[in-house]
Amino acid sequence: MSTIKVRPLDATHYRRDEEDVAEYLRQVMEGGNTAELDAALVDIVRAQLRQAVQGDPGAQVRAKS
Q1: What would you measure as the largest C-alpha separation in the chain, in angstroms?
Q2: Which of 3, 18, 19, 61 is surrounded by the fewest CB atoms within 10 Å?
Q3: If DSSP codes are grouped into helix, strand and coil, which group holds residue 51?
């Protein structure tokens, strides 16, 4: 029998725009779990950083001045 290799889900690949982020936060907040909210906020920041590094002109990350 062969083994199937899988990678863990990386939510940062699926947060593409403000509407995605808003819906993601809405769903997380419905649950009322603060640990999930913390994780969601980390996912959102990581997604924005990923977009900035990849040169996405819509990236929302701003450098401190």
Answers
A1: 57
A2: 3
A3: helix
